[in-house]
Design brief:
By secondary structure, the chain is α+β, with helices and mostly antiparallel strands. It folds into 2 domains: 156 residues, Gcn5-related N-acetyltransferase (GNAT) (Aminopeptidase, 3-Layer(aba) Sandwich); 211 residues, Cathepsin B, Chain A (Alpha-Beta Complex), CATH 3.90.70.10. Helix content is 31%, strand content 26%. The strands form 2 sheets. Strands 8, 9, 10, 11, 12, 13, 14 and 15 form an 8-stranded mixed sheet that branches. It has a 7-stranded mixed sheet with strand order 1-2-3-4-5-7-6, with helices on both faces.
Length: 382
């Protein structure tokens, strides 16, 4: 027979790693705690076995009194509190706080700097708990949950609080196809410089048609850095392209000679158009001191990275740099990439300096390229 709250003695709370034998009690706790957005029994089994997570439970008298689940974002210094629950019978004993403190400690041991979470905007007890532990409201989102409640996104730097963070206010835009990370990043950059600009799929696809390499290793072509620079120039922005190679880009992994010929022709066309339209191509190497200078000057910076440290695939991917401090660079990534990630997880993603140095080099030719926009508008190119 289940004990009532009044029947449970004031026993010691034990925080421990989850075990496979906890799954049924976790499922019962979830059903009794949440009416919507519940984790299923299948998902609990998945997370118990999964890597890149921290999963702790609280025991009182050998009864499961609560749990906390943190996801560790691969390739970043970011973690997300995915779920936190305490059995109603054990409320008022500080179990939620003990779980969260233990989760923060383990998250820090895994070299994560930030822990983020979402909470319903009307859940005042939870908000009070998070604020008491140093979490700050990151942004407010309407109609976030299945039951249409609003949410607060909160964040805490759990290992170090930077005093020298250079951060740009940047709207986030999610790419709508797997091959339009470049246009999506450019849309964010332009909207950060011109607050009146909209962010639409129509423009995303227009930019892709203007900047595409036609082919890539597989699937549709990606976006050429000079092509993106020309697209920004066409829309009236002052732009400079940094590119450390004069040879045609992205052809190493393409087997078809016919496709290579087309990609070489497209590369040549972009370079010729840049010269005609006054888009400067700078061959200097990109360093983090220069990036910090650009951000201090209010410029918007897009950069090409390799996704290997995110997902194990060596794919080129465009992102926007949204901040920098003495430990990390911060990215706005247009691609959530996995079902457990959302737009909140893709904003101001912290990447350690050493990791970024490796991530910002792509391919055997060690391609490094970025696009720098300023808010100085020039005559639009028709």
């Amino acid at each position: 027979m289940a004990l009532k709250k009044s029947d449970i003695p004031d026993a010691k709370v034990v925080i421990r790693p989850v075990a496979s034998t906890d799954v049924k009690q976790l499922d019962l706790l979830e059903k009794s705690t949440f009416e919507t957005d519940r984790l299923s029994l299948r998902r609990f089994k998945h997370w118990i076995q999964a890597a890149n997570r921290i999963f702790l439970v609280a025991d009182v008298n050998h009864e499961l009194a609560g749990y906390g689940l943190v996801l560790l974002h691969k390739g970043t210094r970011l973690a997300r509190l995915y779920s936190l629950a305490v059995d109603q019978r054990f409320k008022g004993r500080g179990i939620g706080k003990q779980l969260l403190v233990a989760l923060e400690k383990e998250t820090g041991k895994n070299n994560r700097l930030y822990l983020r979470l979402e909470v319903a905007s009307d859940n005042q007890p939870a908000i009070a708990l998070y604020k008491s532990l140093g979490y700050r409201v990151f942004r407010w989102i309407s109609d976030y949950y299945e039951d249409h409640r609003n949410a607060l996104h909160m964040q805490k730097r759990i290992r170090y609080l930077a005093d020298n963070l250079i951060k740009r206010p940047i709207p986030w835009y999610q790419q709508t196809t797997e091959f339009t990370c470049g246009p999506a990043s450019l849309i964010m950059a332009m909207a950060s410089l011109d607050k009146k600009r909209g962010m639409t799929q129509d423009e995303e696809l227009d930019i892709w048609r203007e900047a595409t390499t036609i082919f890539m290793t597989s699937g549709h072509g990606g976006s050429h850095p000079i092509g993106l620079g020309l697209a920004a120039r066409k829309r009236g922005f002052s732009v400079e392209v940094y590119l450390n190679q004069e040879s045609p880009l992205f052809i190493d992994g393409v087997r078809s000679e016919d496709k290579k010929k087309i990609m070489i022709m497209v590369d040549q066309q972009f370079r010729a158009k840049a010269k005609m339209q006054g888009v400067h191509i700078n061959k200097d190497e990109i360093d983090q001191q220069r990036i910090a200078h650009w951000l201090e000057k209010g410029k918007a910076v897009l950069i090409l990275i390799s996704t290997y440290r995110f997902d194990g695939r060596k794919a080129p991917h465009w992102v926007m740099i949204s901040g920098i401090d003495d430990q990390c660079l911060y990215l706005h990534d247009p691609d959530p990439a996995a079902e457990q990630y959302n737009g909140f997880d893709c904003q101001y993603v912290p990447i350690a300096h050493a990791d970024f140095n490796k991530m910002s080099i792509y391919g055997q030719t060690r391609l490094r390229t970025c696009i720098v926009l300023s808010g100085i508008h020039v005559r639009k190119v028709i």
